[in-house]
Amino acid sequence: xxxxxxxxxxxxxxxxxxxxxxxxxxxxxxxxxxxxxxxxxxxxxxxxxxxxxxxxxxxxxxxxxxxxxxxxxxxxxxxxxxxxxxxxxxxxxxxxxxxxxxxxxxxxxxxxxxxxxxxxxxxxxxxxxxxxxxxxxxxxxxxxxxxxxxxxxxxxxxxxxxxxxxxxxxxxxxxxxxxxxxxxxxxxxxxxxxxxxxxxxxxxxxxxxxxxxxxxxxxxxxxxxxxxxxxxxxxxxxxxxxxxxxxxxxxxxxxxxxxxxxxxxxxxxxxxxxxxxxxxxxxxxxxxxxxxxxxxxxxxxxxxxxxxxxxxxxxxxxxxxxxxxxxxxxxxxxxxxxxxxxxxxxxxxxxxxxxxxxxxxxxxxxxxxxxxxx
Amino acid sequence: xxxxxxxxxxxxxxxxxxxxxxxxxxxxxxxxxxxxxxxxxxxxxxxxxxxxxxxxxxxxxxxxxxxxxxxxxxxxxxxxxxxxxxxxxxxxxxxxxxxxxxxxxxxxxxxxxxxxxxxxxxxxxxxxxxxxxxxxxxxxxxxxxxxxxxxxxxxxxxxxxxxxxxxxxxxxxxxxxxxxxxxxxxxxxxxxxxxxxxxxxxxxxxxxxxxxxxxxxxxxxxxxxxxxxxxxxxxxxxxxxxxxxxxxxxxxxxxxxxxxxxxxxxxxxxxxxxxxxxxxxxxxxxxxxxxxxxxxxxxxxxxxxxxxxxxxxxxxxxxxxxxxxxxxxxxxxxxxxxxxxxxxxxxxxxxxxxxxxxxxxxxxxxxxxxxxxx
Lengths: 374, 374
Prior knowledge:
The structure is a homodimer.
Chain A: H1 6-15, E1 33-34, E2 46-47, E3 53-58, E4 65-67, E5 77-78, E6 80-81, E7 86-90, E8 98-102, E9 104-106, E10 109-111, E11 118-121, E12 124-131, E13 148-156, E14 161-169, E15 183-187, H2 196-199, H3 203-212, E16 220-224, H4 242-259, E17 269-274, H5 276-287, E18 294-298, H6 305-309, E19 316-322, H7 327-339, E20 344-349, H8 356-370
Parallel strand pairs in A: 15-16, 15-17, 17-18, 18-19, 19-20
Antiparallel strand pairs in A: 1-2, 2-3, 3-7, 4-5, 4-9, 6-7, 8-12, 9-10, 11-12, 13-14, 14-16
């Protein structure tokens, strides 16, 4: 196995705080609406046009209700109880655009907000809230032809079970029967699972919209669970990619090539991942340059010219991060790769941190160029 | 629209209580294990070999924590706090085999158990727990060829949006490209959604296992959201099937026939539903006998010979319920249908009530005979 500076990447990933928009103090506009990530019919949580979030939780006999979202990680937002026993509160300031995980702390215990839908993050099903973004159109549900997200259960002898993955197939895939497609293997981050990229990332809608606008040639996206060896928080320093690499390269890739109409060669196979999924992408692409030819790290480290020169030459390197992470590291890494003769592209998501809005935008930017030379 | 005795069905469905196994008093065996429906890595809730459930919730400053599961609906199970601030408790008696929805009441507020996965029921994402059943093998995840569960987004002009459905396609569906399949349209119950039949019903695993054992000819299953007109509890008396019938018959069926390799005729199209989904099945099959030829009501009412004689003759009628519901009503209805010359089959799930174990077993019993004459 190839070594790389895990502890540096670990620090880089986790030192960037969850982002809150910085604005001057101003009045809070009373145009709050239910979050688009609420359970059907639920009025709260709500968000306003400035990005403030407002919460409402019924727990009449509780002594304390806190929301984990708030300014700068300073303990979140404390709710206050009114005379009807209902707890309410608004974030101290506006939050970054896009999706945020959160939870409630009620009398010292961690629970979800009964108004919000749940998303797997931090190794638990968390509550989710959506701050409408100025560019939300690119992942909106529109009346365009839609591809499918297929749950597959593939045999995994190395883990002695059938494992789950999701496969995005573009509109029309099931209608015609001869066209073959390139494939992107797309990984979630630490504490997330194979549901993340379609549930909170809207990867399928991003693809549907790009295809409807004629901006890309369709490809398949395969998403599976990358925490094969049960990494827990803090254990990332001990991360070994071997177990997951076996599942991905020796079990999932052959299954997908046998069961879907893929262009089953290195030229038409890409791997990308966010955060910890970027670490996995980095290791596996360098270990298996005969399997993948296009690599993308989304808030998940960099490649150096040295480690790439020791491997086969990739067709494309894509490295991205939010502007509130470490954008200079991304840009500098891509400059160095270009100088060394690699086809490398950087992308920085403006005004976002180590969160899904950065990764939605990264996928939207990556997809049109990923297989464009093919 | 055809009329039928809605209030009778309403009473029948909701008067049967959620079931608890009745046993003589005995010692509780200390062989508790984490429920198979727990979030990854979570030790609680646990179940033992007798069907008792044990809960453990951290909320050190709470004054009261209750679990909605307990004997005979008598307020559920009260947890007690130990010196470390952890709330624990065990159900007063053993519970029925199979899947149960539940939630916590903490200081007067309703929340989910952070240890359990969430399932959409009662118009909210509820916690779920699984009491291992003696016959759990038929819906177990085995190392057999697996079909896919495809999320589709189909255009719905009548509701002015793209609507979601899930389509089960059998193993090998995507490999070969000419075989066509019959289709079962399968509906969830009140307060559930299109995720229910695969998440808590394991419809895909039931099919995979039946196919692997050579017990059935494969068919597709289509599952979509049936509460189109936003029925809330108590509003079921005012239930009108028109809006959903339009979505199902005029929008979803043509989309499925255009995008999947179906046998697109009445002979090869079935509709089934559980509870409220049975009410919908009853109405829609009688309104549209040219669309469906095989009807199944799972804990969801009956057909009378009179109403069927006024319609086209179905190929098969299947009516089921749990033995703790009203099994005589099911058997009597099927006797009357047989006497009148209809091909009718009854099924009673032993020892279960108005819950998913009844419906898993109903599907397992229905699937081999559904299209067996074709």
